[in-house]
UniProtKB/TrEMBL annotation:
Coiled coil: none annotated. GO terms for cellular component: cytosol; nucleus. This is Peptidyl-prolyl cis-trans isomerase. Keywords: Isomerase, Rotamase. It comes from Paraphaeosphaeria minitans. Its EC number is 5.2.1.8. PANTHER family: PEPTIDYL-PROLYL CIS-TRANS ISOMERASE, PEPTIDYL-PROLYL CIS-TRANS ISOMERASE-RELATED. It catalyses: [protein]-peptidylproline (omega=180) = [protein]-peptidylproline (omega=0). The keyword Isomerase applies. Residues 7-41 form the WW domain. It comes from the Eukaryota. Residues 118-141 are annotated as: Disordered. Residues 70-189 form the PpiC domain.
Length: 189
């Protein structure tokens, strides 16, 4: 249970840990509001720093990341939805109105930042996919730096799956379009 200015959460909000999902979540004791996504008014930079310091796995693989089948891969992604996505809403925006073209332009900017980071991690313009996903992804996996855990063939949308399985460990895809929106995918394992 964590609250206060260090977390970057608005007044009254706390970070708690779900035993059933082995994930952090956000809770407001006065209102009994509970959610997976950070509440409005959160300072994303402070929250990201706090989560990295206190809620990272530090070498311990949580249950949701454990590859028990062996024929699965683990990947992270950054999703930018558009108004024609199958569900044009996210934790960041309750109603997404950007066009598909605007979503593609946004993802291109993110890809440039990731490329800059991979070429030189000290580049001030560069950011890792995980860093960007935490604040920019329209998927709820943003709270885990975009990490989707392990999945096998048939678990994801066809276009996403094909792109993810083609990647080598550590590699980031180009732009991948699915019914959910436009993605950048990084194979983790």
């Amino acid at each position: 249970m964590s609250s206060g200015p260090e977390t970057g959460l608005p007044e009254g909000w706390e970070i708690r840990h779900s035993n059933s999902k082995n994930l952090p979540y956000y809770f407001h004791p006065a209102t009994k509001d509970s959610r997976w996504e950070p509440p409005a008014g959160t300072d994303p930079d402070r929250l990201k720093a706090y989560m990295a310091k206190y809620h990272s796995s530090k070498g311990i693989t949580p249950a949701y990341l454990d590859n028990q089948g062996g024929d699965k891969i683990r990947a992270a992604h950054l999703l930018v939805k558009h108004r024609d996505s199958r569900r044009p809403a996210s934790w960041r925006e309750p109603r997404i109105t950007r066009s598909k073209e605007e979503a593609i332009e946004a993802i291109k900017v993110h890809l440039e930042q990731i490329t800059a980071y991979e070429n030189d991690s000290s580049d001030p313009n560069g950011k890792s996919l995980s860093e960007l996903a935490t604040t920019e992804s329209d998927c709820s996996s943003a709270r885990k730096g975009g990490d989707l855990g392990f999945f096998g063939r048939g678990d994801m949308q066809k276009e996403f799956e094909e792109a993810a399985f083609r990647l080598n460990k550590g590699e980031v895809s180009g732009i991948v379009e699915t019914a959910s929106g436009v993605h950048l995918i990084q194979r983790l394992e």
